[in-house]
Amino acid sequence: MKTTNSPKSPTLNYMMRVGLLPRPEHSIPGDPVNWAIANLYRDDPTLSPPSDRDTSTNLQPWPEELDPGIRARLVNLWRWDEARDAIREKMKNAPERERQDKLDEAQFKYDLRWHDAARMDARGAFGEDSVRQRFGHFWFNHFTVGNYDAFYTAGDMYEHRILAHMNGSFADLLYEATTHYSMLRYLDNVTNVSPRSEAGRIRKQKGKQVGFNDNLAREIMELHSCSPAQGYTEKDISEAARLLAGWGDWALNPRNEHEWYSAKEPFVRRQSEPGTKVILGKEYGSGHKALREFTRDLAALEQTRKYLCHKLALHFISDTPSSRVTDALESAWRQSDGNLGKVHEKLLELAWTDGDRKILWPSHWLYNTVRISGSNFFMGHKDIFNRKSGQRAMQPMRELGISFWEERQPNGYPLLSKEWISLEHLDRRIRFASTVFGTGSGRETPAQIMANLGVPKTMRAQMLSTGRAEEQFTALVVNQWAMEVQA
Amino acid sequence: MKRRDFLKMSTAGLALTSLPGWANIANPERRLVIFFLEGGLDGLSTLVPKLEGSLESFREELIPNNLLDLSSHWALHPAMRSTHKLMLQQDILGIHATSFPYTKRSHFEGQNLIQGGGLTPFSESTGWVGRALDIASNGGRAMSLDTPLLLRGATGVDNYYPAQVNGSANPTIDLLQRLNGGLSPEWQIENEKLISRLDGRVFNSRDRSPRGLSAEAGQALARPDGPVAAMIRLNGYDTHAGQGGKNPGRLHSLTGELDTCISTLRQNLGAAWDHTTFITLTEFGRTVKVNGSSGTDHGYGTAMLVGGGAVNGGAVLADWPGLAKSDQFEKRDLMATTDSRSICAAVLEHTFGLEHDEIAERVFFTPNLPRLTDRIFL
Q1: Which of A278, A432, B61, B253 is 20 to 30 A off residue A62, Cα-Cα?
Q2: Which residues, 6 or more positions from B322, have their beta carbon under 8 angstroms from its beta carbon?
Q3: pLDDT band at residue A3, thresholds of 50, 70 and 90?
Q4: Does A188 touch chain B if contact means CB atoms closer than 8 Å?
């Protein structure tokens, strides 16, 4: 670990690389690598002040009713559809603004995405499980679900698929992410219906369009597992689309009692493709078990291991990871038979000795900025029910260009440092530094922050020599030591 | 329509003229705008080969009603009224059955290749517009929060995307100067650009829609000291489901948005339209046949628009490959018969006054790239 002329200790630099900086009330670990490994497996509830007007020490658990499970979310979604139609009908002659107000009100009641976004930010600002969060963000980005329809349930996917499975086998994580409603919806698999299936034949008889949709089939290989390096063919993709047909659902109305509301898996047999499929030279049968087998096979491929180890190293270790690093990760993968917890542990060891310079994602920079300031910048769960402020819940990450609840392409946000350098990105950092300084109670002065972080006295004096407190704070966080992890 | 017929059909029968040698004279007022259509534009429903018999059999429900006729062979999507008008005024040229040399149908490889302009995806760390700007010592502007690969490679590239941060003010020059010492070198370069931006005009617009950015780009490019090139991203072209055709669907909104961007750009450029060229870029076209969800999957050949006062427009340039199953690429996609890089090279030659051979070699690393400049510009 070499950090010369740095106001930042090697431990703080490491915390920034694999986790987040401490709040004033948090302790700085004495044994960083073991701290990080233990932190990876923490299972903390989300704690946050209920409102951004509360003091930052009034931490309370995020209400359980805001994480009601996938079924309840889908029922909500249907109720919102119904409410929307009713409002439009009832208020068709009302002024546009009044109607929109009612529509917004109904949407806030049924759509939990604002809560989900605020919850992620609350964790970022207050959570002591920062290593776990960083890996959660990595995998949620790997399995991007980036459009309007997917956002209703994306928070459920993050809590119950990503965080719950990211330290288990990659085969399981791949299966869990692929079969979550948000993914099936985002990559159009809900419309992937076999023309030979019972439902397909009926649709055809009615003169309706029916057939395969290969969007998820392509991305599960290209982006989620083996990458194009595997050398699969278009035939493999179309066969995978046949295997995936029936996963998801056309209709969103839970009153229809579609079979998947009672089934364990969102698999609709009457939309699925009968017969054998051959993908990458292997035969798969029909029925829902074929996907489990297929994801297990994808997870076991050498190219999957190589691609994912490289990707992890890119995000946490270096823009140009050495073969020493990727070999060590691959070896951990092989020895554990694809257990991501073991791969993450190895990465946390390597990050202490082999880390290069990396520019942090703007979201992690903002969490760090809020944390070291000791302030309470993001909304609490109570604020969201107030529609006017609720709509602002997603603003910070949207402005920084890294919201998980913004439309984006399936390859997710970039991992390379250079992708995040621009004049506008710099402008946003400065603006947020100033708004973090201007908000919240319990905020620390720049001098206190530096003392908390153990910045050497001479450097402290130098940084505090000119300017008002707000400028000093901005200079402290819009700075290479705060925006980047050093080698 | 006959296969392998080189179609160059002027809608008004204007004689084709060219002024050889023009491109070699430095014309500092010339400008370039790139509309980057993310997701893969369905060329066949945007610029429709209406006489193509097999179109109905493969995708009847995707053929829009009320097509806007361009000629006996071609029609434009009905949401593109302004574009249609400009095409009839011979200010916009359509190019069909075109693509970058990339056939693997991955968005991310494809987008990287068409921005990088290299020989394989992920081979380049700079973009083809950036390299050309660098050779010509010019500056460009990305109308986005980030600086996309396409524009990287030249020092004079900045970006513009108005902030909407509650309670924040534009940073002061004093503050930026104070921050400079604490930044690493790459950020210092951005900081200096931010200082010079604040030194000049302060932006008041908060509109970040593609339309708003097109207006801002038009105004910026029209200024004598403005950037020479600008890129505007439009997303959502990955129309796997509900693309629309007989009934308006996603492509209707998308082409409508592009149409608004083009007319807004033209309006805001004012007289500068005469020396500005815009092009559309997209990573690939889409399957000829409709898929099971009233959409189309990733394909190969697509359509492109090139417009501006100096463009020899009002026509569709295509070495038309035909749409019969046997004429399709891998029996599923529109074949690409025109290398899009030739169109891009022509636009660079015209805008920056660079020699075609130099562009072919130093920007696209393809010395034998065919030259199409005289077919595109007056």
Answers
A1: A432
A2: B1, B3, B4, B52
A3: very low
A4: yes
ipTM metric: 0.91
Give the pLDDT band (50/70/90) at residue A180: very high
CA distances from A209 to A186, A235, A355, B236 (A): 20, 22, 53, 22
Q: Is B266 helix (H, G, I), strand (E, B) or coil?
A: helix
Alpha-carbon span B144 to A419, nearest angstrom: 12
Contacts of A227 (CB under 8 A, 6+ apart): A221, A303, A304, A307
At position A126, the amino acid (one-letter code) is F
Q: Does A233 touch chain B (CB under 8 A)?
A: no
Q: Is the pLDDT of residue A53 over 50?
A: yes
- Contacts of residue A82, defined as CB under 8 A and 6 or more positions apart, other chains included, come to none
Q: Convert the pLDDT of each residue in A157-168 to its tens digit.
A: 999 999 999 999
Contacts of B190 in chain A (CB under 8 A): 421-423, 425-426
* DSSP secondary structure letter of residue A304: H
Is the CB of residue A212 less than 8 Å away from at least one CB of chain B?
Answer: yes
Distance of CA A178 to the CA centre of its chain: 15
Q: Which amino acid is at A266?
A: P
* Secondary structure of residue B277 in the 3-state scheme: strand
For B284, half-sphere exposure in the C-beta direction (CA atoms, 13 angstrom radius) is 27
- The rounded distance, in Å, linking the Cα atoms of A179 and A401 is 27
Each residue's pLDDT tens digit, A103-121: 888 888 888 999 999 999 9
Q: Judge whether B320 and B337 are in contact, CB under 8 Å.
A: yes
Residue-level pLDDT at A440: 57
Q: Is A483 on the interface with B (CB under 8 A)?
A: yes
> What value does the mean pLDDT take over residues A41-46?
95
Q: Take residue A8 and report the two structure tokens written for it.
A: 């930042």
- Whether residue A381 is predicted with pLDDT greater than 90 in this model: the reply is no
CB-nearest to A211 from B178, B292, B330 is B292
Kindly give, in sequence order, each residue whose CB lies less than 8 Å from that of residue B111, ignoring residues fewer than 6 positions away.
Answer: B38, B283
Res B354: pLDDT: 92
Residue A351 has pLDDT above 80, yes or no: yes
Residue range A113-130: average pLDDT?
95
CATH for the stretch B5-162+205-376: 3.40.720
Query: Can you tell me the distance from the alpha carbon of A290 to that of A246, in angstroms, rounded to the nearest whole number?
Result: 12
Write out the residue limits of the CATH 3.40.720 domain(s) in chain B.
5-162+205-376
Once rounded to an integer, what is the mean pLDDT over residues A83-94? 93
Q: Determine the Cα–Cα distance for residues A449 and A12; give it in Å rounded to an integer.
A: 13
φ, ψ (nearest 5 deg) of residue B117: 70, 20
What mean pLDDT do residues A379-395 have?
80
Q: Which residues of A touch B191 (CB under 8 A)?
A: 423, 426
The structure tokens 């823009």 sit at A319
Instruction: Tell me the CA distances in angstroms from A20 to A13, A17, A28, A367, one per residue in order.
Output: 9, 8, 11, 7
Q: Is residue B194 within 8 Å of A427, Cβ to Cβ?
A: yes
Q: Does A467 touch chain B (CB under 8 A)?
A: yes
d(CA B98, CA B281) in angstroms, rounded, equals: 10
> Are A194 and A273 a contacting pair, CB within 8 Å?
yes
Could you tell me where the beta strands, DSSP code E, fall in chain B? 5-8, 31-37, 47-49, 68-69, 74-76, 92-99, 140-142, 157-159, 229-234, 276-282, 302-307, 315-320, 338-339
Write the DSSP string, A407-468.
---TT-S--SGGGG--HHHHHHHHHHHHHHHHS-SSPPPHHHHHHHTT--HHHHHHHTSSS-
- Average pLDDT of adjacent 10-residue blocks, chain B of 378 residues: 38 31 57 97 97 92 96 96 98 98 93 96 94 90 94 92 86 92 94 85 76 95 92 96 93 98 98 97 97 94 97 96 96 97 97 94 96 96
